[in-house]
Amino acid sequence: MKNLxxxxxxxAGTMMAHHLRKRLSAAExxxxxxxxxxxxxxxxxxxxxxxxxxxxxAIVKPVRDLLxxxxxxxxxxxxxxxxxxxxxxxxxxxxxxxxxxxVATGSHIAPDEIEGMxxxxxxxxxxxxxxxxxxxxxxxxxxxxxGGKLVxxxxxxxxxxxxxPLEFAFLADSFFKKRGIRDRVEITFVTPxxxxxxxxxxxxxLGHLLADKHIALEADFAVQKVDPERKCLVSWDDREVxxxxxxxxxxxxxxxxxxASGLGDDLNFIPTHKNTLQSIAHENIFVIGxxxxxxxxxxxxxxxxxxxxxxxxxxxxxxxxxLLETFDGHSNCFIESGDGKALLIDFNYxxxxxxxxxxxxxxxxxxxxxxxxxxxxxxxxxxxxWHILLKARPLPGIPLQKRPPKEDAA
Length: 410
Prior knowledge:
The protein folds into 3 domains: 2-109 and 253-318, 3-Layer(bba) Sandwich (FAD/NAD(P)-binding domain), CATH 3.50.50.60; 111-251, FAD/NAD(P)-binding domain, CATH 3.50.50.60; 332-409, no CATH class. It is 25% helix and 26% strand. The protein has 10 helices and 24 strands.
C-alpha cells in the first residue's frame, strides 16, 4: 500500500480528500488527513458573526463528519516535514511516512508581528474577525458599543479573502443605521494599498461606495505599531489614526511547520508552480489553498478551482505523465455592500474583474454591480459549501477556467 497524506482539514484539504478518494484505488492507496483541530469552520461566516447575522452552530462542524468514510483522520499538530525522508513529524505521536504529500495548511493571523497589536487592548478595544474566537468577541462588543471612532484596518497583503475587511466596513455602516446610532459612529477604512479595492477596474467601478456611505479612506498606510494607551495606529511615515474601536486584519502567515521544515518563504507560504500547483522544491509535494505563495486570492473559490487542476496533476504525476498547466488564478467572490445588497466579481491571473452576467452570459447574477440577488447568493453559499463544495461535487454553470470578456478579448 502507498500512503498519501493531506496536511490540513480546512476547505482545500477536505475537498482534496474527496477528490482523491474518488480517483485513487482504496486497494492501492491509503489517504490520511492531519489537522490540529477537530472542528471545521465555515470561515465566510466569520464576517457575519460580529453583526449577529448568523448563529455559531451554523459555521462549525466536526472534521470527521465531513470526510469520506475511508479517509483516516489524525488529530494532531504538525511539527515539521522532512521532505528528504518523505516523513511528517507530529506533536505527541509517531511520525508518518508518505509517498505523496498534499499541503493544505492554510494561513493564520499573526497579531504579534505588529508592536502593540495584541497588547493590553486585544479583544477589548482591538479585535479581529478572521478567527471564530475573534468574531465572537467582536459580536459581544458591538452589541453594546455606543459609538465613536471605528477603524477597519488591513496590516499587509496577502490576506484571506482580500475584500473581507471592506465588506466589514460596509456591513458596519448598515448595522449602526439599524441600531439608530450611525450618526454617532465615524468609520475609517485604513489600507496599505493605494485604494480600497485591489484591482484597478474594480476600484474605478466601486470606489464611490465608500463616499456614498460616508466611510473615510486612509490609503498607503504602512502600520508600524498600535498604541493601545493612546488608542491610535501609527504608520512608518508618522501618520496617526485614532480609534475607539479597532477592527484589524493582522499579518497573515502560513503554518509555522513550514518554517521548521525549511519549505516556506518569509511568511511561511510555500513556493509553488502557479499553474500546476506542484512544489517548486520537491516533485512529490503538491500545495493548495492559502498555503501557497501564488499571486491569487486566498479564498475558498480559488481552492475549489485549484482542486480540479491538482487532482488531475496528481494522477498524471503518478502515471509519469507531464503535468497540466491549467490553473489560471481563477477566483470569484461575493462582496457584501450593506443594506441587503452585494456585488460579485470574477477574475484570474490575467483578467481583471469586469462587468457582465454570471455564471452564464444571460445571468442571473450581475458582475461589478450591486444587487439583492447577489446578497442572497452569498447567504445561500453556506449550504452549497457544506453540501457541494467540500464534497468535491461540480458546481453547475461554473467552469474551471475563466475566459476573457469580449471587451478584453478584442
